[in-house]
Specification:
The protein is mainly α. It folds into three domains: 109 residues, Endolytic murein transglycosylase (Dna Ligase, domain 1, 2-Layer Sandwich), CATH 3.30.1490; 80 residues, no CATH class; 108 residues, no CATH class. 47% of the residues lie in helices and 10% in strands. It is built from 13 helices and six strands. The strands form three sheets. It has a two-stranded antiparallel ribbon with strand order 1-2. Strand 5 and strand 6 form a beta hairpin. 28% of the residues are buried.
Length: 345
């Protein structure tokens, strides 16, 4: 019985190899015969982006969708026949719709336009305008074009409930290191950053915000304040607790960072006249949250805003600027004492 099974397995493997060879022969025949029936293709240059980690089948689908190839199966068989699977690069590449399979394979192996990639890093806490200035300084796009792109409407679920304001994307341009192509537009860069937020964004965020009694946009506002106020990561949930405590008691937030957002030239310490600027972002003048986020927060600040520490603190003041450590107070009396002690130290 064992011998019969072994013979059966051998026969099955031989049959599979034979069928594959027949399919390959048919595909080769189709490859040479099809042009005579389909007529000449219109010559057109096409830039295609091959996703990172894409299989041969996925690459064939992308090429077919962009009219680079006519038959996905033929491309897959050719790649297997030539033992090219796993050798194709990812990134943006330029093809012509009249290219032969061997020419297409060569472009895929070389990587096409991938060598024209540039990299830039946006730190946590940068505003839209600071991002624009950084990109211009690095020669990527002009400050003006980026700010124009930042005012456009983008179709993302997390932006649908965002009210109109100067930059609807403020707070949602995720801080990270990005790779872009030399000819990338400002709009493409904005979309890339929003795509990154979309990857980090979880449906639970919206649900958790609702449990707290806030919209996701309001949570991002809180996260942006945390990002600007806190340097010591361990303090983020505690500062979040202070913000919620003050909001729940209808106490003005009086966060310096929200006023700094309004200043063209930032100061180490606010002046009295700064706190008197009439703006919906001035939390010294108006109760509640500012009109919009005051920066683009990282995931740690967003998580802290969604998971505030429960305590009875309503105030905090920097007690060690080098380490970014704060003193937290429950009463105004204690807070005034802390200010006198640490401001003069």
């Amino acid at each position: 019985m064992v011998v019969v099974n072994e013979k059966g397995d051998i026969m099955l493997k031989l049959l599979k190899k034979l069928l594959f060879k027949i399919v390959m022969i048919l595909c080769v025949l189709v490859f040479f015969v099809m042009p005579y029936f389909s007529g000449p293709k219109i010559s057109k240059d096409v830039v295609v982006e091959i996703p990172k980690g894409a299989s041969t089948a996925k690459i064939a689908k992308v090429l077919s969708d962009n009219d680079v190839i006519d038959n996905e199966m033929m491309f897959r068989v050719y790649s297997k026949w030539k033992k090219l699977e796993g050798s194709y690069k990812y990134g943006k590449m330029e093809f012509n719709t009249t290219m032969k399979l061997e020419e297409i394979a060569e472009v895929l192996k070389k990587g096409g336009l991938a060598e024209n990639v540039r990299r830039f890093t946006i730190p946590e806490g940068y505003t839209v305008e600071e991002i624009a200035a950084k990109l211009e300084k690095e020669g990527i796009v002009s400050e003006e074009s980026f700010l124009t792109a930042a005012k456009l409407n983008y179709d993302y679920d997390f932006l649908k409930e965002v009210p109109n304001r100067k930059y609807k994307v403020e707070g949602y341009l995720y801080p990270n290191t990005y790779e872009i192509y030399d000819n990338a537009s400002s709009e493409e860069i904005v979309k890339k950053m929003l795509d990154e937020f979309n990857k980090k964004y979880k449906k639970e965020y919206k649900e958790k915000a609702k449990e707290l009694g806030y919209t996701l946009d309001e949570v991002i506002k809180i996260a942006s304040i945390i990002e600007k106020e806190v340097r010591n990561e361990s303090e983020r949930p505690k500062v979040a607790g202070v913000i919620y405590n003050r909001l729940n008691k209808n106490i003005k937030l009086q966060m310096c960072s929200t006023v700094q957002y309004l200043l063209e030239n930032k100061r180490a310490r606010l002046l009295t006249k700064d706190t008197e600027i009439n703006s919906p972002y001035n939390t010294y003048m108006y109760e509640g949250l500012p009109k919009g986020p005051i920066a683009n927060p990282g995931i740690e600040s967003i998580e802290a805003a969604l998971n505030p520490e429960t305590h009875e603190y309503y105030f905090f003041v920097v007690k060690d600027s080098k380490q970014g450590v704060h003193h937290f107070s429950k009463t105004l009396k204690e807070h005034n004492w802390a200010k006198r002690k640490y401001y003069n130290s």
